[in-house]
Design a protein that fits this description.
By secondary structure, this protein is α/β, with parallel strands linked by helices. The chain is built from 23 helices and 21 strands. Helix 6 crosses helix 7, helix 7 packs parallel to helix 23 and helix 19 packs antiparallel against helix 20. It is globular. It starts with 20 loop residues before the first helix and ends with a helix.
């Protein structure tokens, strides 16, 4: 179904003149794919500017050393005495002479390229060697009439072993010759788009930079291409959403009796944000279309309680809820929180993980199959073939970025068009919400439960480690409990990071306290045992790696020490800090750093000291990280853009999203000339799932 106009772009690289299988394999490495389109979509990373014309005498003055271009007369060839000695070509202009030097030279080739008595344009790095000026292996040799001023500025492309810069440039030039004139899909009524070039002109301009400014994301050609790429992705997301809404789900209606029972049983008053998120989810569930809603919020903003209310509504409507978490610790923690809340409404919660075996597992599976288990908390074990639900109507996915699309789909297939509620414990910047979750309805939990006191955050140099340990000892003696987080499990030859095991032994030898150790390499059973002991007050200080970021919840812990805090991202630091300050007692977070802080690391620690607002911190993290791997969300579906830079093109994303929403709202978006152009756009950027979804709807 791909438009015929795109066939040349999707042809194999070997279809280009001069590109055989061996060269194609090298080009595929640097272009990120083996098609003509991949070469076209690989933009230059820099330029070589040979426009600086000088005389030989100016080279000798020292001010014009480096990359230069000259017009010279070839005088004579001076072959080396042996094959190992350099081959020289003497050349001159009215100001003096120089030597062009070649190693392992082929005389016949050089005589053809640089015939004595003729003028040539040469370009390369001019250097003084003894009393003479020379250029070793000129980068460019051409007849004066063969080269224009534009030819003297060349784009630089990524390279790999065995691939030369000239070969890469030739391959891209050959690929650009295949670029077709494509129909216009942008809305010319958009003020920002009025001055943009056509798509083919934009591609050609992006590959022909004349200065460093032309390589910047804000260049008009790059802006046009970035918008197209963002539009294709947003349109695919919006079409997926429209297709989902077109498919009938089930209207899950209830009187609200069980929901009210859960609210009455809660040991706190729900926040306005929690109730707004639930009301939005309830409206989705009562509609005949399938819910796909994201609930994201700050640390401790109460996402699990929103899930509890949604599960109570589902139970009263007569269907089951499956809550899938990425780790066994987190799955069991959710069950521990949900069980007393939902018991007040007569709703039974069970847990199913890979650890459950034999008779116990069989009993849980039977309760799920006969419907006596209303809410099932679990890990990947939930979508195994042997697990059959009586009537699965609501799927809740926590920390969804840790699951693949196929995982979510397999769980959803265990029910009859179940509604889906996605939860993220990381507040997500608005730009990323559009980029990653553009097909979901979004609820933000931007309030924290009343009575919570934000932790006091201090930044402390590593030289004061002994003072920190001494202060921790005094706090534990008063009955306080603490986390101590280290980035590694054991000492490494390639890293000076403090290791959890080493720190565990130091604290054990220094303090009279009950100290536990928790890290990712432990068996699941041991992790759960240590986490439970800390939660139940049997451990005073828990030394851990970032495995505690999610899944270890001890509400009465009041101290968080993060060692080598300069090595963590802002979002992760905020997540870790969120393990304390969950009750009404004052709490503190100590950020220990080692060595001199770089500018970015210093800003991160300043932001942590200044703010406890997760949404502000997420935006700052986004600014500091740029679009390399924002918030570590690459695995969550953030597209690997070729033209768009989300940090630089943040203003284009809402524009692309709004335009895509208008298109998706049309009854037949792919009809007519404009529809054909949009279909071409989606296939060009390989977002054609949107076309297929609309055709199957």
């Amino acid at each position: 179904m791909r438009p015929e106009s795109l066939f040349p772009l999707f042809a194999d690289l070997t279809s280009l003149t001069g590109v055989g299988p061996k060269l194609a394999a090298l080009l595929e490495k640097v272009f990120g794919g083996g098609r003509v389109k991949d070469a076209v979509f690989t933009l230059p990373t820099g330029i070589i500017d040979r426009s600086r014309r000088v005389t030989i005498a100016e080279c000798g003055e020292g001010g014009a050393s480096g990359l230069v271009t000259l017009e010279v007369m070839v005088e004579a060839h001076v072959p080396g005495a042996t094959l190992k000695t350099p081959y020289k070509v003497r050349a001159s202009d009215e100001s003096g002479f120089l030597h062009l030097v070649f190693f392992h030279a082929r005389k016949d080739y050089l005589m053809r390229t640089l015939p004595p008595g003729e003028k040539r344009i040469v370009s390369g790095k001019a250097e003084r060697f003894g009393s003479e000026i020379q250029i070793v292996h000129p980068d460019l040799v051409a007849k004066p009439g063969e080269i224009s001023a534009d030819d003297l500025i060349q784009p630089i492309y990524p390279l790999t072993a065995g691939l030369t810069a000239n070969t890469a440039r030739k391959a891209v030039r050959a690929a650009l010759e295949r670029v077709p004139d494509l129909p216009e899909w942008r809305d010319v009524d958009m003020p920002e788009a009025a001055s943009w070039p056509l798509w083919r002109a934009a591609i050609e301009a992006a590959h022909a930079p004349r200065s460093a400014a032309d390589l910047e994301p804000g260049n008009i050609a790059r802006t046009r291409l970035a918008f197209d790429e963002l539009l294709a992705h947003q349109l695919a997301l919006k079409l997926a959403r429209a297709s989902r809404r077109a498919r009938k789900g089930r209207a899950l209606t209830a009187t609200g009796e069980k929901v009210q029972a859960v609210i009455n049983a809660a040991p706190f008053t729900p926040t306005g944000a929690q109730m707004r998120a639930f009301e939005a989810a309830k409206a989705d569930m009562e509609a005949v279309t399938r819910m796909m809603r994201l609930v994201h919020g700050d640390v401790g903003s109460g996402k699990t309680f929103v899930a509890a209310l949604a599960a109570a509504h589902a139970a009263e409507a007569g269907v089951q809820t499956a809550l899938m978490a990425p780790t066994e610790i987190l799955a069991r923690q959710h069950a521990a929180v949900l069980t007393p809340l939902l018991a007040a409404a007569g709703i039974r919660v069970v847990t199913l993980t890979g650890r459950d075996k034999g008779r116990a597992r069989a009993e849980i599976a039977e309760a799920i199959a006969d419907g006596s288990a209303h809410v099932v908390c679990g890990t990947h074990a939930l979508f195994q073939e042997a697990v059959a639900f009586h009537d699965l109507g609501l799927v809740v996915i926590d920390e969804q970025h840790r699951f693949g699309v196929s995982d979510r789909k397999r769980l959803a297939e265990k029910g009859l068009a179940p509604d889906t509620l996605v939860m993220s414990a990381t507040p997500i910047p608005r730009t990323l919400t559009l980029a990653v979750y553009g097909d979901l309805d979004v609820s933000r939990l931007d309030e924290k439960p009343a009575g919570r006191i934000a932790p006091t955050t201090r930044v402390i140099p590593g030289e004061r480690l002994d003072d920190v340990i001494e202060g921790l000892g005094r706090a534990v003696a008063k009955g306080e409990r603490a986390y101590w987080v280290c980035p590694l499990v054991e000492e490494s030859d390639i890293s000076d990071l403090a290791a959890a095991e080493e720190r565990y032994h130091l604290l054990s030898n220094s303090l009279r306290a009950r100290i536990g150790l928790l890290h990712g390499r432990m068996p699941a059973r041991d992790k759960e045992r240590i986490a439970s002991a800390f939660r139940n007050g049997e451990i005073d200080i828990l030394v851990a790696t970032t495995v505690i970021e999610v899944g270890v919840d001890a509400p009465d812990a009041t101290i968080m020490v993060i060692e080598h805090a300069e090595r963590f991202g802002l979002a992760q630091l905020h997540q870790l800090r969120g393990r304390v300050g969950r009750g009404d007692k004052p709490s503190s977070c100590l950020l220990l750093y080692h060595g001199r802080l770089g500018e970015t690391a210093q800003r991160r620690l300043e932001v942590m000291r200044e703010s406890d607002d997760g949404f502000f911190i997420a935006e700052e993290d986004w600014k500091l990280r740029g679009s390399g791997d924002p918030l570590g969300l690459r695995q969550s579906g953030l597209p690997d853009y070729r033209f768009a830079d989300l940090a630089a093109h943040a203003g284009l994303l809402p524009m692309a999203s709004d335009y895509a929403r208008l298109i998706a709202a049309r009854e037949n978006p792919f009809d007519g000339e404009k529809g054909e152009a949009l279909r071409t756009l989606l296939y060009l950027f390989e977002r054609d799932e949107g076309v297929k979804l609309m055709r199957s709807a």
